[in-house]
Amino acid sequence: MKKKKQQMLGNLEIAAFCDQLSMIVSAGIPIYEGISILQEDAPEEETAEILSVISNSLDHGSSFCDALRETNVFPKYVLDMIGIGELAGKLEEVLNALTGYYKREESIQNSIKNAVTYPLLMIAMMLAVILVLIAKVLPVFHQIYMELGSDLTGFAGAMMRFSDALNQYLFVIVIVLIAAAAGIFLISKSDAGQKFFKKDPLH
């Protein structure tokens, strides 16, 4: 569970947090003690800071929902559901439901990301292959036709002229296509790309 510049936690971070707390509640451990346990075992400083804010809020008499709100890293949906769970005395059930929900959300978003990026990468690579074929293979056929005393006409002739022009900039075009494919891949892995694919009206 990470916090960086007050950004909302990711799906898997929320799922892990809710899963750990549901086990704590299931064991009969009070929330404030459970948060202290998680804080002591926190693997990262950012996680410990978030848990510290929650712990301090609970110490000052805040509800668990309000304590989470103080961190500014939990989406409204989580806060609303936990608030309902507290009022209804069903916090464990709500935490389990949130764990499953955010795991499914992560799976769906990964599927969407793959469905978008993979075809774009394939299109870029196919264009690169087609351009190489036009620039390098078509001239071979043109040479054969010339040796036979004929020439390419119509569409084939137009493609040959395109091939001649393409050969002048082939290296640059292929580099641009490869860079575009690499850019798409890197963007999908970047923070901005992850944020785009993780847009959720409930957050």
UniProtKB/TrEMBL annotation:
<dbReference type="Pfam" id="PF00482">
    <property type="entry name" value="T2SSF"/>
</dbReference>
<dbReference type="InterPro" id="IPR018076">
    <property type="entry name" value="T2SS_GspF_dom"/>
</dbReference>
<keyword id="KW-0997">Cell inner membrane</keyword>
<keyword id="KW-1133">Transmembrane helix</keyword>
<protein>
    <submittedName>
        <fullName>Bacterial type II secretion system domain protein F</fullName>
    </submittedName>
</protein>
<comment type="similarity">
    <text>Belongs to the GSP F family.</text>
</comment>
<dbReference type="InterPro" id="IPR003004">
    <property type="entry name" value="GspF/PilC"/>
</dbReference>
<keyword id="KW-1003">Cell membrane</keyword>
<keyword id="KW-0472">Membrane</keyword>
<dbReference type="InterPro" id="IPR042094">
    <property type="entry name" value="T2SS_GspF_sf"/>
</dbReference>
<dbReference type="GO" id="GO:0005886">
    <property type="term" value="C:plasma membrane"/>
</dbReference>
<keyword id="KW-0812">Transmembrane</keyword>
<feature type="domain" description="Type II secretion system protein GspF">
    <location>
        <begin position="17"/>
        <end position="139"/>
    </location>
</feature>
